[in-house]
Amino acid sequence: MGLKRTLKRLLLAAVAGTALAAPQVLHAQGAPRYGGTLDIGTVYLTLAPLSWDPRDWGWKFNHDTGQFYEQLFAADLSKSEGRGGNHKFVADAWLPADAIRGELAEKWEWQENPLAVVVTLRKGVMFPEKPGVMASRELTADDVVYAFDRVNTSPQNARGFFDYIEKIYARDKHTLVIEMNRYHSEWNYRFGYGHYSGIVPREVIEAGATNWKNANGTGPFTLADVVQGNSNVYVKNPNYWDSEKIEGKDYKLPFVDKVVFRFIKDEATWITALRTAKLDILESVRWQNVESLKKSSPALKWRRWLGQAGIFLSMDVNTKPFDDIRVRRALNMAVNKQEIVDAYYNGHAELFAYPQHPDFGGYFQPLSEMPTAVKELFEYNPQKAKALLAEAGYPNGFTFKTQVCSCFPDHMELLPLVAGYLARVGVKIEIQPMEPGAYFAALAARKMTQGYFFSIGHSNPTTTLTRNFRTGSPWNPSGWADPAFDEKITAMYALRDETERQAHVRAMTVEMLEKAPYIWLPTPYAHTAWWPWVKNYNGELRAGAVRPGPIYARIWIDQALKKKLGY
């Protein structure tokens, strides 16, 4: 056995010679192979499905159902870095204009008077047969209209999310008209590739969309099994319509027979699962685990990416003492954020990367270009923090409660550190750890404590401002409400020129940073790791709004290499 382990390790080390080469030329890996199972620890591996029905407006719906419910648009993965393009495809809900392809939409064009987008759907896209639910039939424009109307009339509908749409109707069997009452710069995201954009047929709704056993879409996989809190199992849809062009030849998708999402709450367990190849891909690895994995499993391939969510301690601005901007700014100055980057993250973080992300190009303004009023919120200054607290009437500090989710290991470690800094200026935090269900339910019902330790995805350059700071947004934990800022959001969405829109977004971002409804915290880097038998993959995470399905459909397993490596 000792000799066998030695030979296996030598072979792993030999394979590791190409493990860090990036970007890879994926299609140089040869002809794809069909079959096998792809086991994945996804970015959300601690969070089981929240809902199978888009009408519930669950943010994670698209992640769990995007393998079988398709949308009008998706990422053009031919533009990925691994295929010679410029895009990482890790953003949680942003596709740049040059990186969007039609999925169910074959083509689309604008028309004026009335303002509308006319979408031509692909012909011959089929819903597979689902015994007890529906017979196999072709997707039509009526299906898209029905799906939109149902989501738009949901009681959970986010205020104003679709109010730019005057009406949607089917001109004929394969032509959809989206008529608008005004231009909206997020038109293609909100119902084209967004969180609630999956086309769910009427038959599934009538059978009961909340029951996963009734799920049935046009995508590359079908939902075969769900073990609550353990796994989702997706199996190949043999009649899927799409293909992947590799070295000039079209190959029918998907390549693997089965995709399994593993849900694992304990970090040590999911790291072990990767090390022992129980997982083929682990999409998010904290920096603390990277070096040990590289030593124990040298054949693993890696990609480093800057986190796509902001981490912060939200303060309820509608209650004392957080209704006073001096208090909010003081608490920011009391936290040594650079020390958190250097000591807690060991340099594996960016001091400033939220609410805009550096990957957003012209929408992002680096800290070095920010006004002093923003810069000083990221500089450790406990003396000024104490002075501001005294000026606001709290010379001896105060105490407040903060909820934190046990589902985020990083948060459970980071919040006590933040509390330690605040204690130095007399402010004490009573930490209340919560299980995921109760934690997110508190936010949904607006029954949070004054502090709420949270992480929200950047989404995209415009949505990040809306979801954090628009009046009434369900993802606005500070309760920020400013009619003037709401008007600026509306004006932003009306701008057709992207350069002009970028300038508008930068100004709004500066405004909210200065007003400090959150204690802004560093954004850590994460890593994606996968075994070398996973082919046609370079660490891409999302092909739409938290939707990985099209990525997994293009992966194949080199079974011979897997066996050669002893697995």
Describe the 3D structure.
Helix 8 (325-334) packs antiparallel against helix 11 (382-391) and helix 15 runs antiparallel to helix 16 (498-515). This protein has 2 domains: 33-300 and 531-564, 3-Layer(aba) Sandwich (D-Maltodextrin-Binding Protein, domain 2), CATH 3.40.190; 309-524, Dipeptide-binding Protein, domain 3. The radius of gyration is 24 Å and the shape is globular. It is built from 18 helices and 25 strands. The relative contact order is 0.18. It is an alpha+beta fold and 567 residues long.
CATH architecture type of the largest domain? 3-Layer(aba) Sandwich
Put simply, the count of helices is: 18
Shape: globular
Helix content: 25-40%
Low-confidence stretches: 1-24
Broad CATH class of the largest domain: Alpha Beta
Give the oligomeric state. Answer: single chain
Looking at CATH, the homologous superfamily of the largest domain is Periplasmic binding protein-like II
Number of domains: 2
Q: Taking all residues together, what is the mean pLDDT? A: 93
Instruction: Report the biggest beta sheet as strand number plus sense, adding barrel if it closes.
Output: 8 strands, mixed
What class do helices, strands and sheet pairing give? alpha+beta
The CATH topology of the largest domain corresponds to D-Maltodextrin-Binding Protein, domain 2
Question: How far is the N terminus from the C terminus?
Answer: 15 Å
Query: How big is the Rg?
Result: 24 Å
Q: Hey, roughly how much beta strand do the residues contain? A: 15-25%
